[in-house]
Amino acid sequence: MSVQAQSFPATAPATSAVHTPWGFAELFIISQTALPAILILPGTQAIRLPIRMAAFLVPLAAFVWWNATAERRTAPSKTQSWLSAVMILLGVMIFHPSTPSIVAGVAHAAVYFAVMTPLFWAPSLVRTPEHLARIVWLLLVCSGINAIVGVLQVYDPARWMPAEFSRLLTSGPTGLGTVSYVGAGGQLIVRPPGLFDTPGAVAGPASYAALLGLIFAVSGLPAWQRLLSLGFAAAGLATIYLTQVRAALVVAIGMMVVYAIVATRQGRVGRATQFATLAGAIVFGSFTLAVALGGASISERISSLFASDPLTVYHGARGVQLQLTFSDLLYQWPLGAGLGRWGMVAGYFGAPSASESLWAEIQFTGWMIDGGIPMLLLYLGALIVTTLAEYRVALTRQYSKLAQCGAVVLAANLGTAALIFSFVPFVTQVGVQYSFLACALHGVSRRYGVDGA
After folding, report:
1. Given pLDDT bands bounded at 50, 70 and 90, which one contains residue 392?
2. Which of 436, 404, 423 is nearest to 263 (CA)?
3. Residue 449, Cβ neighbours under 10 Å: how many?
4. In whole angstroms, what is the distance from residue 24 CA to residue 30 CA?
5. Fewer CB near the last or first residue (10 Å), C or N of the chain?
């Protein structure tokens, strides 16, 4: 039986039983893994910029297509209003005196817009809970393969590691020194990149593999698909341990907790118990595998999470950036410091001198640089509105399949939203995926007459 027919078993309107053929939505999910994977091939660093841009050009092209079609299928979500205001603000910031150039400003604003574009076209492409379930399954497969490659890169680096890493990293003064650790046999291990060219980058997809793998493992799928899902979940958690990205581990476990709580609120206590039990086993089992491959460095890194209280641990990792944001930057540039001054855009298009470039390791810092207090308030407002909409869909009583889809999207997207404290998800492909899942759910819920947004 098909994935969409079994992954979220429940009653729904007769229209949901109509099979939806594969289309752009499925190809889009695959492209977000396949395009960056090109960079693991030898000789591709010379064309890194167009390859990295391609992952953002795909959603932009979909936006152009959406505008070219005459039919308007779904009412806009409340999130669109907030993010439209963000784009207006970014349009003004292009002409900020500290923006290095018009090109840099436009490029930086375009990255933000590419992340947002699924808000417009995704609702028109995903029509039923079964269709959304199939897309989530594809996301699991792509993330799971990514995670498996990450494990193999530690097990047999000579065969599986990329021939070249990102030049933005290797050209630095420390090279790969800051992204390496000593393994079980005394060998130097580079944090696995998975199907990327940046060490540790696989941690994000691995988090989704862990969550979605466990969800499908306790679903009504055939036994082989449930076992495959469980394998993806185990690989996801093992890869997170091997990358030593502690934030990804905290986020992955947080997503699992959210899903278990929402499933309980939905009245699926038995399913929530199965999920929680299996999650606990996988968390500890994958840790054993990771230590066997990565040695004591893995256990030492994870144990550092419990070395002190959570606030102290966070302050030692990314808390300094948060403090900088709300002390120095808040008073120095309360209305923003211009665009194109940090991140990938600055590396390729902006900040020609060290005095013009800025550093942002967390999204709060990036927002403060790009638009100051207004940017912070608008984007945080958009995230809150989106989360509340997903929660309302997850608790709808009328259509249980739709509610179960809502629980999955809510748990996954809350994990992405939580990364604003340790990463810059909303100028990366992680943010594109967030927008896609949120608005695919919005489109399905509106067709079912459930006004989550």
Report:
1. very high
2. 404
3. 10
4. 10
5. N
Look-up of token digits 């006004």: 451
Bridge partners of 180, per DSSP, are 190
The SS3 assignment for 240 reads helix
Among candidate residues 35, 47, 346, 54, the one with its CA nearest the CA of residue 196 = 35
CA 167 – CA 172 distance, rounded (Å): 8
* HSE of 289, CA atoms in CB hemisphere, 13 A: 23
Assign 95 to helix, strand or coil. coil
* Higher pLDDT pick, 221 / 149: 149
Q: How far is CA 306 from CA 165, 174, 241, 299, 310, in A?
A: 32, 28, 15, 11, 8
pLDDT at 15: 47
Q: Which of 65, 32, 347 is nearest to 196 (CA)?
A: 32
How does 218-232 read in b/e, with b if 16+ C-beta sit within 10 Å?
A: bbebeeebbebbbbb
pLDDT surpasses 80 at 2: no
User: What is Dmax (Cα atoms) for the chain?
Assistant: 62
Q: Is 267 left (phi over 0), alpha (psi -120 to 50) or beta?
A: left
Q: pLDDT-derived band of residue 402, with 50, 70 and 90 as boundaries? A: very high
The values of phi and psi at residue 188, to 5°, are: -85, 125
What pLDDT is stored for residue 177 in this prediction?
Answer: 60
Give dist(CA 275, CA 99) in Å, integer.
49
SS3 for 453? coil
Express each pLDDT in 110-140 by its tens digit.
999 999 999 989 998 888 999 999 999 999 9
Q: What is the pLDDT of residues 228-285, one digit of tens each?
A: 999 999 999 999 999 999 999 999 999 999 999 999 999 999 999 999 999 999 999 9
Measured between alpha carbons, how far is 40 from 291 in angstroms, rounded to an integer? 26
Q: H-helix or E-strand containing 248?
A: helix 246-265
- Alpha carbon of 94 to those of 109, 247, 365, 414: distances in Å? 8, 32, 18, 30
SS3 181: strand
Over residues 328-336, the mean pLDDT reads 91
162: left (phi over 0), alpha (psi -120 to 50) or beta: beta
Q: Which residues pair with 189 in a beta bridge?
A: 181
What are the φ/ψ torsions at residue 209 (nearest 5 degrees)? Answer: -60, -40
